[in-house]
Amino acid sequence: MFVSGGRRRRRRWPYVLVALPVLLGGGAAGAYFGLVKAPGDVTNTDVEFSAPEEEPAEPEREERPDERVAWPTYGFDPQRTRHFDKDLGRPGRRIWHVGGSKLIEFPPVYARGKLFFVKNNGEAYALSARDGDTIWRKRVGRLVASSPAFDDGRVFITTLSGRALALDAETGRTIWTKDLPSRSESSPLVIRDHVYFGSEDGTVYALQASNGKEVWTYRAAGEVKSALAYSDGKLYFGDYAGQVTALRRRDGSRVWTAGTEGRSFGRAGNFYSTPAVAFGRVYLGNTDSRVYSFSARNGELGWSKSTGGFVYGAPAAADTRETEPTVYIGSYDGNFYALDARTGETRWTYDAGGRISGAPTVIGDIVYFSNLGAKSTTGLNIETGRAVWKFGRGAFTPVISDGRRIYVTGYSSLYAFEPVGR
Q1: DSSP letter string over 346-375?
Q2: C-alpha span between 104 and 411 (Å, rounded)
Q3: Which of 37, 65, 96, 149 has the fewest CB within 10 Å, making it most exposed?
Q4: Pairwise CA distance, residues 363 & 412, whole Å
């Protein structure tokens, strides 16, 4: 995904596994597949599932006098559902465009008329959402691969330089910094004046949002590269040991840990995917090429769904007036999937013709995703999977909104569009 040496090492091992059978011959190849062939998919209809009401409740949002809506964290809400329940129509006239040469791997967040984001070279930005002008710019590290979070006039950032920090949202002034013993690319989450994120040595942190002081830590079985999701008093995350864990938010004590069926000589795949929590379930992808659904209450496996390639990106989880509860996610096999949120059955697929590495976003009745292979962004009708919008820029996680405009992240640029009806 990312071009630097450190990030490339993070994802090199799956290609080795893919190439290994080609190097083996005859009986050795047969023995290989006998040992590492992944087991079949799982569907357990007895696992609890919370069906939504007929008229789905809108997520909590920060309303502004101009009717704009805050998008304060990666994935929109604390559950990381990536579902914005407002029908804006597809992107139409381009309002502004800010170019650049440095990769923007993770999308901006929006609050109080500003877009906040960090480029992979470690430069943090605040842009005017009205015209794209730079309000402030600040170097926060040598390497960053995460979205910031906004809360109470502050912007929170984690870095691959081994640092967490808070900046004043108006000026970019540093409020506090905390040095970490390892790198972090876990987009922070702020709940009740606490900041939560993971790190590459497996430590999950809870810090005071006001001063950066440590509240508690938890040591996972493997690297925690994904962002944490929150629901009903619990924090959820996956790790590079192939485990999914739920912690109590107040003290970091473990509620449950669940594993996968895995592959690679009995070793589980890696969870880089950030979870989405919805319908009483936890959804996330894995480098074993599967999408998983666990009970949010006790970690029981509800279903697993195989794709033809690694699943790095986070899912979107949504129920709308047009569709039943559905999970939307892309795969390195070049397909984008709409899966039944209860059973994992395929509702429809879309052949993107290239690797999908980032997360999708549902806005109204359109789900957006980027094609890393083609460097493009596509909007699909959530009911039919038919393409309704295409844009020749994109790489990872492409779209957020403030309720009036749609903001699209290209490979190294940001675009603001005025939506139009279809």
Answers
A1: EEEEEE-SS---S--EEETTEEEEEETTTT
A2: 6
A3: 65
A4: 23
The neighbouring-strand residues paired with 206 are 196, 216
Q: 13-23 vs 26-36: helix axis angle to the nearest 10?
A: 140
Q: Which of 228, 313, 100 is nearest to 327 (CA)?
A: 313
Chain centroid to Cα 92, Å, comes to 25
- pTM score: 0.88
Compute the Cα dihedral for 75, 80, 84, 90 and give only its sign.
positive
Confidence of residue 4 (pLDDT cuts 50, 70, 90): very low
The per-residue pLDDT for range 230-289, each reduced to its tens digit, is: 999 999 999 999 999 999 999 999 999 998 854 444 457 899 999 999 999 999 999 999
How far is 273 from 90, CA to CA, in rounded Å?
27
C-beta neighbour count of 24 within 10 angstroms: 14
Residues 379 and 366: beta-carbon distance below 8 Å: yes
| Predicted pLDDT of residue 39 | 63
The identity of residue 95, as a single letter, is: I
C-alpha distances in Å from residue 177, one per residue of 166, 174, 180, 218, 325: 7, 7, 10, 20, 41
Q: Is 74 helix (H, G, I), strand (E, B) or coil?
A: coil
